[in-house]
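Researcher: Good morning. I'm working through a list of sequences from a screen, and I'd like to move beyond sequence-only analysis. For each chain I'm collecting a predicted structure so we can compare shapes side by side. This is the next one on the list. No need for commentary yet; just the structure.
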Amino acid sequence: MKALGPRVPRFVGWGLAVAEAYLDGPREVAVVGPALDDEAAKALHRTALLGTAPGAVVAFGVAGSGELPLLADRPLVDGEPAAYVCRNFTCDAPTTDEERLRTALSR
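Model: Good morning. Structure tokens for this chain:
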């Protein structure tokens, strides 16, 4: 690192970003809503996109549409938009709260 840093700083930076994402492990976030233009669903989607988890993948769609595999079998929660955070093929309980989603993505 000491020798490469001054010569190719961008390469070193990208390499460290990839290493951080690898060590954190993959995270998948599925955000479902009743419609794509639903304000609460868009707010959850925006929160997921702004999350600090390295290498997170975010999918956004209509509940029950089956348009993406990550969104399959992800229902609304009590009729409200929901976000599902998954790691290693295991998902946390869905949340409808932006702050809980932000916390789940920062762990």
